[in-house]
Amino acid sequence: MVIVMSKEATEQDLEALKSAIEELGMQVHVSRGEERTIVGLIGNKRNVEGFPFTSYSGVESVVHVTHPFKLASRDFHPEPTIVDVDGVQIGGGNVVIMAGPCSVESREQLMESACAVREAGAQILRGGAFKPRTSPYAFNGLGEEGLKLLAEAREKTGLKIVTELMDLENLELVAHYTDIIQIGARNMQNFPLLRELGKIRKPVMLKRGLSATIEEWLMAAEYVLSGGNKDVILCERGIRTFETATRNTLDLNAVPVVRRLSHLPVIVDPSHGTGVAAYVPSMSKAGIAVGSDGLMIEMHPNPAKALSDGAQSLTIPQFHSLMKEIKALTQALGMRMEGLPLSV
Amino acid sequence: MVIVMSKEATEQDLEALKSAIEELGMQVHVSRGEERTIVGLIGNKRNVEGFPFTSYSGVESVVHVTHPFKLASRDFHPEPTIVDVDGVQIGGGNVVIMAGPCSVESREQLMESACAVREAGAQILRGGAFKPRTSPYAFNGLGEEGLKLLAEAREKTGLKIVTELMDLENLELVAHYTDIIQIGARNMQNFPLLRELGKIRKPVMLKRGLSATIEEWLMAAEYVLSGGNKDVILCERGIRTFETATRNTLDLNAVPVVRRLSHLPVIVDPSHGTGVAAYVPSMSKAGIAVGSDGLMIEMHPNPAKALSDGAQSLTIPQFHSLMKEIKALTQALGMRMEGLPLSV
Amino acid sequence: MVIVMSKEATEQDLEALKSAIEELGMQVHVSRGEERTIVGLIGNKRNVEGFPFTSYSGVESVVHVTHPFKLASRDFHPEPTIVDVDGVQIGGGNVVIMAGPCSVESREQLMESACAVREAGAQILRGGAFKPRTSPYAFNGLGEEGLKLLAEAREKTGLKIVTELMDLENLELVAHYTDIIQIGARNMQNFPLLRELGKIRKPVMLKRGLSATIEEWLMAAEYVLSGGNKDVILCERGIRTFETATRNTLDLNAVPVVRRLSHLPVIVDPSHGTGVAAYVPSMSKAGIAVGSDGLMIEMHPNPAKALSDGAQSLTIPQFHSLMKEIKALTQALGMRMEGLPLSV
Amino acid sequence: MVIVMSKEATEQDLEALKSAIEELGMQVHVSRGEERTIVGLIGNKRNVEGFPFTSYSGVESVVHVTHPFKLASRDFHPEPTIVDVDGVQIGGGNVVIMAGPCSVESREQLMESACAVREAGAQILRGGAFKPRTSPYAFNGLGEEGLKLLAEAREKTGLKIVTELMDLENLELVAHYTDIIQIGARNMQNFPLLRELGKIRKPVMLKRGLSATIEEWLMAAEYVLSGGNKDVILCERGIRTFETATRNTLDLNAVPVVRRLSHLPVIVDPSHGTGVAAYVPSMSKAGIAVGSDGLMIEMHPNPAKALSDGAQSLTIPQFHSLMKEIKALTQALGMRMEGLPLSV
Questions:
Q1: How many structural domains comprise chain A?
Q2: Which domain holds residue B46?
Q3: Cα D85 from Cα A2, distance rounded (Å)
Q4: A54 contact C CB<8A
């Protein structure tokens, strides 16, 4: 951390600041430039987390030179984390495809989806049982009934299951049924929830918040990791920008940035990222080529009858056709795409 | 709602769409233009909430012509809502000032703050007992001990109390102690929490999310209102933009927009809105002049020792000086600023 | 400037970097922390403008600790600049109102506007003769004919004139007729144009670009100042954000930020800032209360017949009513609003 | 176009609006819903371009149901445009790579770059002779000398040339030397410049503005097309968002959106899009996989000595290695990458 003194700062200002820093158990390193004096802090950064240096007289600004996350950082964990989901590896060069309907709507709808996902060679079935909706009047999921159907589909197909958890109340319930707990964009900074997720032993897929910087996203992961749960998967699902031609702006740049800063695997969700089914195939291919660890894709047997997010869902034939392209791409890029074991 | 057909749409496409709409209990109104055919839907919009029209063949886009909120809308409630907080009116032309430290840190710190807030003529004391922090390693509040100190300060000064609730677990506890429950920006779309807030009888102050549109903010209010709790206060606290000279971009434009669309009172928070104490006085005055129902301001007896948000906190003398300017402004604008009753 | 070395940087990396810096005529100051080594550069920053330090092995990032502008900075010019427009002072506590139609459309329209502006007590008449339009098919101004009408209106009313210049071709022509040359948001980084504006002796009002940071805006002013023209006025006119309820997001936070960083006067344009006439009065009042040096407001004798921007134009009675409120506010805030001399 | 009446609109309001619309030569189609009456306009939309309908009493909002561009639209030109650059085809499934240094710095630097570009199998050499710089004190290009060196490199290698034009003054000069005229992000809405580009017969590559919507970008292309120049190439180079981990946010979503709306070819620039050399290879591969017509990549013989944008420039070996990957990818995706003729 570097503190920049204003042009008008006096020697007394500097001395007062130095005392305050030393009281916090840090060392001080002063550097006098032509226009500004800067003060470097040396020592354990956590000592000064959130300390209000700019309230000190003569202080112009505070500049952070390292990232605030530790456990999520590649600095202290250079090897990529591989999350093992009951035999399916996420991270480490294996491309994983998660697909299925936005919401679990009925046994028929889910089983048809699951079979199609399995047949196409994907490894994980997605489906929402608890749905966050911007309108209080919209369909918000089947609840436990949906979880049971997901478990039934896993039984039938051998696919692993990922589904969203929205609140602490249902943590135990959701963890009981699912293989991966998905935390949605709106809950990325639900800190009480993140703390509890750190205490369980179940992989957590953490979606990036609509306006979360990559640093904030990794800090949210840090909450889970610092609780002791090492199985965190990141998921880029689009950020909010001024552009309205797409529902969100899928930020593929986040993939190489995360790779550089962190060891955690990262998945791309082109369905929420664009909000338009017609854009999903091209953004899926880009999501693979950019080097992510896999995709999460919405697919529905009949999008025109979907109870949520039909506009961004692929049909089953569209999904199958896309999977063929993805496989060719994966090969050309020298990546693996390990399927499920044959015997279910 | 208006559906725009693509240039290539056929008569069969149109017929299929019309059937689907009629099945939903709506009437159809077709308008054939030179470039596009558009289809108007007439009837109760809730019937078609989230229906995937763009999945139908020949549909280019869906255009919403009304807002999705009802109870929060001025259309159905033309008179402004006045929230009565145990005698202090929020809304209806009375300017309310909420002030105090970011976090409750100690009895001494809080009592000194409360006395200064009371003396300056403000009506409501703010102070966090549960703090959302981006870092898992940062101070996160005194919890119930903080709530008790707030209640003690109310007892002593007659000020009303506002404090943040972060999760369902603590709803009953926080509601027991506070006069207004504050919901932070990160929880603006915590739907399970909003649903429960609709069931209690305690004013709720709902901060705008960092990247929430005004429409989404009013939809969040709709969640609370639709549960039966009519005492919702909105709070603009800055949005996230590309500009980094301020912590957030306080969006004062939101005040006249909310006034036009809704009957709910709206408060401005220049402390979080800018993140810099030096900018708080001018943005406070702008927040009054723009016609809001009041301000929420961070003030600390010693910002340089604050455990959170010291950089954006005014000192006690700065706050007193600002209050004098605010009073002059309020008068010049023909607004009221009713203080607390003299006898406590 | 501070250079942060990566955790993996070697001593050779550090030595190579130090040599490069010293070759540029700067001194080096190395500070070894627990996690990172940082390298401070001491000397004239212009020597290293744009130098690709991150291309050096072992360099993680470059952190700027001072702003890149000099002539626009308060550091080297602590007193506020007052731009004298033929007797009307902009800056230094005098509130200036610029008003008039978006485009000059006809003699009748302009004279009616000018008389109304004069009568209401404003000092400057605005009106576009050259109009930037997003559509090549839209009305783009009367050109020189419009400039002549503006000069005629000045003759008749004594008002000063501000009008937009769009390209180098018309610089001489526009400078001949107008008192202040307005540079629109889209031209804020038209560097060849800015360079030429530095060579003339005529006040320049520089609008902030739609997505320009405050630092970039001040760098654009630096272009003009560095050419020798000291009469630069800044104008905040709204930035582009995710919010669509307003045409732009008028960023009033920019006013105190500019005050802190620069000595240049700053004007607020609530008409382009919001794009909606109904929001102009409240944002105008906020624009005064925040401490700007004045406003630029669109007003039209008949907005429903305006050839451009009718939706954001006030009518003459609305403008007169707003001016009364602005005067009361200016007084309450202890600011001046010096009108034009009585004799014209 | 659809006009939405407010709830309070009267029959007289409706009649007045209808008259105004009919006077503009359009037909009116009224649709009365439960909450709102909406008015459809039928006829040539250009008649009502910019007409201030919201200034009419009882009008709540105006909703556009078609895009404002015509010549750039796929509606009226379903076949993709292929721009022929002296034998190199841009568009229509041929992948084109433009590469070279940010600025032309010397004969030696440019010739070394050109040979490396040619050898790697790219078709077009980039290099700036006129450079837009945010600082008035930074290197701004060699001017005509740079253009001459580019022409010499073309002579020597057979590569085609693309270079930036910044102002009308140099249009003739730049057009004389280059094969493609590049218009930078900051000039995307320099309307006088766009108008003149419509009058010449030379391909124009139009970069997307930092905060330009895709619709505005296509409207800028419309300016050039409407002047008669049909050879417009679009270039996505990153937009400005809240994220600061990358210099800009390369918006690959724009590629499928442009494909759907327009027939014009679109190129991706990962160098400016990310601003960090380490992210360029992965974003280049994503830019190909998403289905663009090619890439523009910055490469420098010695980035650590580059006079501009060294931080985002690949070295020659990095570029060669990336080209190999791109070729494999192109093949896997079923696209072509036609090189230059063998004989130069």
A1: 2
A2: 2-63
A3: 51
A4: no
